From TrEMBL:
Domain (Pyruvate kinase barrel) ranges: 30-360
Listed GO MF terms: ATP binding; kinase activity; magnesium ion binding; potassium ion binding; pyruvate kinase activity
NCBIfam families named in the record: pyruv_kin
Cofactor(s) for this UniProt protein: K(+)
Annotated pathway: Carbohydrate degradation; glycolysis; pyruvate from D-glyceraldehyde 3-phosphate: step 5/5
Keywords carried by this UniProt record: ATP-binding, Glycolysis, Kinase, Magnesium, Metal-binding, Nucleotide-binding, Pyruvate, Transferase
Family to which the UniProt record says this protein belongs: Belongs to the pyruvate kinase family.
Domain Pyruvate kinase C-terminal: 395-516
The protein, known as: Pyruvate kinase
InterPro entries for the chain: Pyr_Knase, Pyrv/PenolPyrv_kinase-like_dom, Pyrv_kinase-like_dom_sf, Pyrv_Knase-like_insert_dom_sf, Pyrv_Knase_brl, Pyrv_Knase_C, Pyrv_Knase_C_sf, Pyrv_Knase_insert_dom_sf
Originating organism: Kalanchoe fedtschenkoi
Length: 528
């Protein structure tokens, strides 16, 4: 994969740009998260998405009930068996999301310079003069002149189906607003976003807790996407809650930054969370347009240096209805990769888009091309400088493995790991070649039964850029006490790499493993 590595600073033959991208087992080092829904819930569609490069399936509980999502997840598991491709499960909470309730589902046309009233009385009929909402405290939260955004922009990006409102007056529990642009609202639910105003609702609602306690526990979710994370305390409370739910104590929490409040507390949130999702739909409303790119670059840098996964949303909205992205969208995906994102999260594009499989494939191809011009040398130096000296033992081993792999032009790095931490540290330095993470299962007991760890750790690698996990056979632990079993596990990893087409005869491979109490980096050259 690294053989075609270029730098944007180097001259590129224009003719080479026209050469078709070669198909590859690893469509890209950057991971793709697909939101499963009406257009992507059959075994056939999910299988197509997995083959196209999707590695994490997102289940958005802001719509649909647990039974509906369970049917989709069962189909996903069948697709995983058919395709023999791992896929992690992400549960996305609702959080303090404000919504307009339109029970009749009739289209509502709002005309510029007119007035419309937002009311907490949900039993009333939605009309062009009255919009019922699901929040009692809006009148206390806003003041005259505040901006409110209503519509499906957060899902479609179309200005014709969204409206900007300006608070004109507060009348008891009702909020009277001036309509700033003409639009037609269609459907049963519209998201309502109040720009830069604190909403006095908990980040983890009671209905979120119920879904996690039932559906989440039943399905042993790998990731919890914590919507509207505003403070580090939000993450701590969520972790405290799931830590009491058996296997979910291993679930990784991804803090979803959606507004200025979360932005202001970003550093402390990053310390507590296992990863960050930059929800650019909401952020794009809360921030001035000219500041969005700046936050993206700063946030990705902080995540990269912390060695925690960073995920970008809202990249190819137009592919919800179209087979090709716009020029701006294609460039946006590439720039996110160059900025250092670990994964791209697709929402409406796969949830209810017309071309879910094509969308995953297209985004993967753009990521693949962008990775070829990613300046790894500069990134490596920047990361080493940021970490400083003295490095921890594990950090030193990880950076050395990447440096050695680049110097000897290794085709892959193979890392033996139990917790996944060593492999994630290697991936932190963004090697130009894939990192095959061989997860070694460990035996554990809860005083009632014995079980093996490893499945969680393997699936949780599926969100990290450049990491490709395989689960080792627990009957053959790879440790220093048994060189034969260690070699057998290495052979499995090499066979996996050969089958994937990333390892060939006479290639060099860098192996990182534990020997006794020490971690060792070794270079092997393959024979015929």
């Amino acid at each position: 994969m690294h053989s075609g590595h270029l730098l944007l600073e180097e001259p590129i033959r224009m003719a080479s740009i026209l050469e078709p991208s070669r198909p590859h087992f690893f469509p890209a080092m950057t991971k793709i998260i697909g939101t499963l829904g009406p257009k992507s819930r059959s075994v056939e569609e999910i299988s197509g998405c997995l083959k196209a490069g999707m590695s994490v399936a997102r289940f958005d509980f802001s719509w649909g009930d647990a039974e509906y999502h369970q049917q989709t997840l069962d189909n996903m598991r069948d697709a995983v068996k058919q395709t023999k491709k791992l896929c992690a499960v992400m549960l996305d909470t609702v959080g303090p999301e404000l919504q307009v309730v339109n029970k009749s589902e009739r289209s509502i046309t709002l005309v510029e310079d007119g007035l419309v009233t937002l009311t907490p009385h949900k039993d009333q009929e939605a009309s062009n003069e009255l919009l019922p909402i699901n929040f009692e405290g809006l009148a206390k939260a806003v003041t005259k002149g505040d901006t409110i955004f209503v519509g499906q922009y957060l899902f479609t990006g179309s200005e014709t189906t969204s409206v900007w409102l300006e608070v004109s007056e507060v009348n008891g529990k009702d909020v009277v607003c001036l309509i700033k642009n003409s639009a037609t609202l269609a459907g049963s639910l519209f998201t309502l976003h109040v720009s830069q105003v604190h909403i006095a609702l908990p980040t983890l609602l009671d209905k979120d807790k119920e879904v996690i306690r039932t559906w989440g526990v039943q399905n042993k979710i790998d990731f919890l996407s914590l919507s509207y994370t505003r403070h580090a305390e939000d993450v701590r409370r969520a972790r405290e809650y799931i830590s009491k739910l058996g296997d979910l104590s291993q679930t990784h929490i991804l803090a979803k930054i959606e507004n200025v409040e979360g932005l202001n507390h970003f550093d402390e949130i990053l310390k507590e969370a296992d990863g960050i999702i930059l929800s650019r739909g909401n952020l794009g409303i809360d921030l001035p347009p000219e500041k969005v790119f700046l936050f993206q670059k700063a946030a990705l840098y902080k995540c990269n240096m912390a060695g925690k996964p960073a995920i970008i949303t809202r990249v190819v909205d137009s592919m919800t209805d179209n087979l090709r992205p716009t020029r701006a969208e294609a460039t946006d995906v590439a720039n996110a990769v160059l900025d250092g994102t670990d994964a791209i999260l697709l929402g409406a594009e796969t949830l209810r888009g017309l071309y879910p499989i094509d969308t995953v494939r297209t985004v993967g191809r753009i990521c693949f091309e962008a990775e070829k011009v990613f300046n790894q040398d500069l990134y490596f130096k920047k990361t080493v400088k940021y970490v400083g000296e003295p490095m921890t033992h594990l950090e030193s081993i990880a950076s050395s493995a990447v440096r050695a792999a680049i110097k000897v032009k290794a085709s892959v790095i193979i890392c033996f790991t139990s917790s996944g931490r060593a492999a994630r540290l290697i991936a932190k330095y963004r090697p130009t070649m894939p990192v095959i993470s061989v997860v070694i299962p460990r035996l554990k007991s809860n005083q009632l039964k014995w079980s093996f760890t490893g499945a969680f750790e393997a699936r949780q690698s599926l969100i990290v850029r450049g990491l490709f996990p395989i689960l080792a056979d627990p009957r053959h632990p790879a440790d220093s006490t048994n060189s034969g079993s260690s070699e057998s596990v290495l052979k499995v990893a090499l066979d996996y790499g050969k089958a994937a087409g990333v390892i060939k005869s006479h290639d060099r491979v860098v192996v990182c493993q534990k020997v006794g109490d020490s971690a060792v980096v070794k270079i092997i050259e393959l024979e015929d």
